[in-house]
TrEMBL record:
InterPro entries: CCDC50, CCDC50_N. It comes from the Eukaryota. Residues 7-20 have a biased composition (Polar residues). Keywords: Coiled coil. This is Coiled-coil domain-containing protein. It comes from Caenorhabditis remanei. Residues 6-124 form the Coiled-coil domain. Residues 52-69 have a biased composition (Basic and acidic residues). Residues 1-23, 49-72 are annotated as: Disordered.
Length: 234
C-alpha cells in the first residue's frame, strides 16, 4: 500500500465520529417526530373538546331559554287571571254601587212625586172648597185660568225632583204651555182613576203622578218610562 492510499484512508476515530453523527441525527429526527405527533394529538383532542363543549353549551343554552320562556308564559297567564279576577270584583262592586245609587234616586223620585201629589191634592181641595162656598158648581180643573203658587229652585239636572221646594217666599207663576198638566197614561187611569193634575213645575218634563207607577217620568216622546204608554197632549 502506497503512502497516498494510506493518507486517503480515514482513520478509526474519523469513522467512529461519522457513525456517531449519524446516530445523533437519527435520534434527533425520531425525537422531533415524536414531539410533532404529541402536539398533533394534543391539538386534535383540544379542538375536539372545544367543538363538543360548544355544541353542549348551545344545547344547554337552548334548553335554558325554553325553560325561561315557559316560566314567563306561566307568570303572565297567572297575572292575567289575577287581573281578570280583580277587574271582575271591581266591576261587581261598581255595579252594586250603581244599583244602590239608582235605588236611592228612584226612592227619592217616588217620595218627591208623593209629596207633590199630596200638595196638588191639597191645592185642588182648597180650590174646590172655595168654589162650593161661592155657590159655583164644581167643574174640572181649568188649566188656562188656574195659577199655581210655587217657589221653584231649578238645578242643572232637569230630572232632579228635589229641585221643587215649597217655602214661605212664593212667586205667582203660570205653568209652561208645553207642561200644563201631569201626563197620565191610559193604564194609570184604568188602575187608579186619577184625573190629570196641574204640573207643579215650570218648563220641566211632565211625569206620571199615579202612585202605581211610582212617579216615573215621561221621555222625550211623551211615553211613560215605566209602562212605555204614549199619552196625547191634554
Amino acid at each position: 500500500m502506497s503512502r497516498e492510499q494510506e493518507q486517503n484512508t480515514p482513520s478509526f476515530s474519523e469513522i467512529r465520529q461519522r457513525l456517531q453523527s449519524g446516530e445523533d441525527f437519527d435520534l434527533a429526527h425520531r425525537l422531533q417526530e415524536r414531539e410533532y405527533k404529541m402536539y398533533y394529538n394534543h391539538n386534535r383532542n383540544v379542538n375536539g373538546t372545544i367543538v363538543s363543549d360548544r355544541k353542549k353549551t348551545r344545547e344547554e343554552q337552548t334548553a335554558e331559554d325554553e325553560h325561561s320562556a315557559s316560566l314567563r308564559r306561566m307568570g303572565l297567564a297567572q297575572r292575567c287571571m289575577t287581573d281578570e279576577e280583580y277587574a271582575r270584583q271591581l266591576q261587581e262592586e261598581m255595579d252594586r254601587m250603581d244599583a244602590a245609587e239608582q235605588m236611592d234616586k228612584d226612592a227619592q223620585l217616588r217620595e218627591d212625586a208623593r209629596l207633590a201629589w199630596l200638595l196638588q191634592q191639597e191645592s185642588s181641595n182648597s180650590s174646590s172648597s172655595g168654589q162650593s162656598a161661592s155657590q159655583v158648581p164644581p167643574d174640572l180643573i181649568s188649566f188656562d185660568e188656574q195659577t199655581i203658587i210655587w217657589n221653584v229652585q231649578c238645578e242643572s239636572d232637569m230630572y232632579d225632583d228635589s229641585s221643587v221646594v215649597k217655602t214661605e217666599e212664593t212667586e205667582e207663576v203660570k205653568p209652561c204651555a208645553l207642561n200644563e198638566v201631569w201626563m197620565v197614561c191610559s193604564s194609570c187611569e184604568e188602575e187608579c182613576g186619577k184625573p190629570p193634575q196641574p204640573c207643579p213645575r215650570i218648563c220641566q218634563p211632565a211625569r206620571c203622578q199615579c202612585p202605581a207607577h211610582k212617579g216615573f217620568r215621561r221621555n222625550s216622546k211623551g211615553e211613560c218610562v215605566f209602562c212605555h204608554d204614549s199619552v196625547p197632549k191634554l
